[in-house]
Design goal:
single chain, 682 residues, 3 domains, Jelly Rolls, 15% helix
């Protein structure tokens, strides 16, 4: 089957704005309308996601599906203004887009939504609004809880990625429409965009508690509103790994979940291997729920997961050893909660006697091996050897294991703790310790102790007063092999992932019977064949033999060649200045320049991030980010540079940002933001 590409189709909205779409149509739509798959993003269809789109939508078109890739308002060639992530207007526009697609002559009225990250979020959010034409969703690298499981906050702790992602969006939203598609009005539209775009951090810092702002778009508030089938996918190396099992447990019938070994990318492109044949998975999903074809999708296990084992942190993770397993029902009767007690630096299944207090005051740069919140490369962006962070933590180890121990689910840590300040963070890590003492982070969790009872109504701690907490760590699927040790590491700092408390904090724990780790031990269930370390990979519940139209592989990736005219460059450095007692992490990520085939647009992006903490005064912390973008075609040349800064003091967040835009060598626009926001139990 061949297909037709509509390079730029405008979707009219009721208020006169238009959203720009790139559309792939099967060549049979003039005879028989097709179901449509929508992906709705701010990341610029013309250049930002073009390469990925070319690897997906031709495959769907050849399978008989129309692919519709839409840029949100204020991005790419779309009219209007960017206001915020997952805003009511964004979702209203999404509803209008779905209705427009369903009404086109080439569409049979059935629409699915698909996307990773932003597109995964709004797919579930739009499903909860129940547009009639939306019949199924595939959501990848997503969340069901915008406050606790996104890049902003985590159990009341302020994540560095709250600032970083605001800086990213400042850079994305400042880029112009393509003159080749927008015509001579491109410049006026660009200037309007530059004068109206927000600096998102201002709004995100104005909501430091889990208030109505974060509840909006958090489908965990009303799971019952979603009544269509949802396939929710993520990876253990992604920050968004909690959503798949939460979705399959709460959304209802015909929702399925997958967690593989991957970073934050579509799982047919992601590392580490083994990859998932996502094209096959998606087409079968759409065949069942958009076409009504009888296949084995409805009977698939609720939860399919890749159980990692014997993982060693390394410079580049090409392949992670393990195996696929399947749980027909989730929650599963095959999961046995098993307690291990934290007793005098030991982790033991035996109930200890009298509690013994142990204290920790972590160095402010404990956490340097934490990696990125959602890695995009399987290298130093992933967590490293945990031994350095363990040195600044209070650790509890089992003896070397006599037999393998397999877990699947969320570990829970119950503790009795007191701190010596009104505000303090607690970080817990679950670590696989190899016989040569290399440590791999299996799971982690954090808690701002002021949020111990409520994220909506936090309370200061009373210094020296004991409180009991239950800290849920992230989802994980892991087999601890015989001869290794299981470690719990507790710290009061996790920089730069978690911004520091206003003061240096000492935490004291009542170890013994009052401190227990509950592991979700997997005792049985369906096993899957060990996938080969190449694409495609089998999953439990699917036959390996498929009709020819499902065997997609990577064939679409070779259709277009993206010429690289300047190589990429990546650096990650940590420096310690003993004179001024600071630790600084500097990250340079330069994409190099590539030429987009078909219209010869040259694009380059360079990100420079600098995170600095004062080891003696954690309130003296500074985060800086610079994002530069170059776009050229012939004599047309533009450049945007956005700079952002977040400075902490004991009581306030001080933010500053600027955007500069250049046409040729001339700066045509400059704008700054400056604001001071009180720290609210931070």
């Amino acid at each position: 089957m061949n297909y037709l590409v509509l390079e730029n189709e405008y979707i009219p909205l009721a208020d006169g704005r238009r959203l720009a779409a790139r559309i792939w149509l099967p060549d049979t739509v003039s005879e028989a309308p097709a179901p449509a798959i929508l992906e709705y993003l701010p990341y610029r269809k013309r250049d930002g996601t073009a390469e990925r789109d070319e690897s997906t939508y031709p495959v769907l078109a050849e399978a008989g599906y129309a692919g519709v890739r839409v840029d949100m308002a204020g991005h790419g060639e779309s009219d209007g203004e960017f206001d915020d992530e997952y805003s009511p207007r964004e979702l209203d526009d999404g509803l209008a887009v779905i209705a427009w697609i369903a009404g086109q002559a080439w569409c049979d009225g059935n629409v699915g939504m698909m996307g990773i990250s932003w597109g995964g979020f709004n797919g579930l959010q739009l499903a909860a609004l129940r547009p009639p034409a939306l019949k199924a969703v595939i959501s990848i690298g997503t969340t069901v809880d915008r406050y606790n499981d996104d890049i902003h906050y985590k159990n009341g702790c302020h994540l560095y990625s709250n600032f970083w992602w605001s800086s990213v969006m400042l850079g994305y939203a400042s880029r112009p429409p393509d003159p080749e598609l927008s015509g001579p009005e491109w410049r006026d539209r660009w200037l309007h965009r530059l004068t109206t775009q927000p600096f998102p951090l201002s709004k995100w810092l104005a909501h430091q508690r889990r208030d109505a702002y974060w509840k909006h778009g958090s489908i965990c508030e009303h799971y019952e509103k979603i009544t269509i089938p949802c396939l929710v996918v993520s990876g253990w190396a992604d920050g968004y790994l909690n959503a798949p099992p939460a979705a399959v447990e709460n959304i209802g019938t015909h929702t399925k979940a997958i967690n593989g070994p991957w970073i934050h990318k579509y799982p047919y492109l992601a590392y580490p291997h083994p990859r998932l044949d996502f094209h096959q998975e998606a087409i079968r999903w759409w065949d069942r729920w958009l076409r009504g074809m009888e296949n084995n999708v409805a009977g698939l296990p609720d939860y399919r997961a890749y159980i990692l084992e014997n993982i060693r942190p390394s410079g580049w993770r090409e392949y992670d050893p393990g195996r696929w397993v399947a749980e027909q029902n989730w929650p599963s009767k095959n999961i046995l909660p098993t307690d291990y007690y934290l007793d005098n630096h030991r982790l033991t299944p035996d109930l200890p006697g009298q509690d013994r207090p142990l204290s920790i005051c972590s160095p402010q740069d404990c956490g340097l091996e934490s990696g990125e919140f959602f890695p995009l490369k399987p290298d130093r962006e992933m967590p490293g050897n945990q031994c350095e962070d363990d040195a600044g933590s209070l650790v509890f180890d089992t003896p070397p294991l006599d037999a393998d121990l397999e877990i699947l689910g969320r570990p829970v840590l119950k503790l009795k703790v007191a701190i010596d300040r009104p505000v303090g963070n607690l970080i817990a890590r679950l670590v696989d310790v190899h016989p040569d003492h290399v440590g791999y982070r299996v799971s982690w969790g954090v808690l701002n102790l002021c949020h111990r009872n409520s994220h909506e109504h936090p309370e200061f701690m009373i210094p020296g007063e004991w409180v009991e907490i239950a800290l849920q760590l992230d989802e994980c699927g892991y087999r601890f092999v015989a001869g290794h040790r299981i470690r719990v590491a507790l710290s009061t700092a996790y920089w730069p992932t978690v911004l520091p408390s206003p003061e240096i904090v000492t935490a004291t724990f009542a170890t013994g019977g009052s401190a227990a780790l509950t592991l979700p031990v997997r005792t049985g269930g369906e096993e899957g064949d060990l996938p080969v370390p190449d694409h495609p990979d089998p999953l439990p519940g699917y036959e390996i033999t498929m009709p020819a139209r499902y065997v997609t592989g990577f064939r679409s990736l070779a259709r277009l060649r993206y010429e690289i005219t300047m190589p990429a460059r990546y650096e990650r450095r940590v420096t310690r200045n003993r004179k001024n007692n600071t630790t600084t992490m500097r990250i340079l990520d330069d994409t190099g320049e590539q030429v987009i085939p078909g219209h010869a647009l040259r694009v380059r992006q360079k990100h420079v991030n600098r995170w600095q903490v004062n080891l003696r005064d954690p309130s003296d912390t500074c985060l800086q980010a610079t994002f530069s973008c170059w776009m050229t075609r012939g004599h047309w040349r533009i450049k945007t540079v956005s700079r952002s800064e977040l400075v902490l003091d004991p009581t306030r967040f001080h933010i500053r940002a600027e955007i500069k835009a250049y046409e040729g060598a001339a700066m045509i626009h400059a704008r700054t933001w400056k604001q001071s926001i009180p720290r609210d139990f931070m």
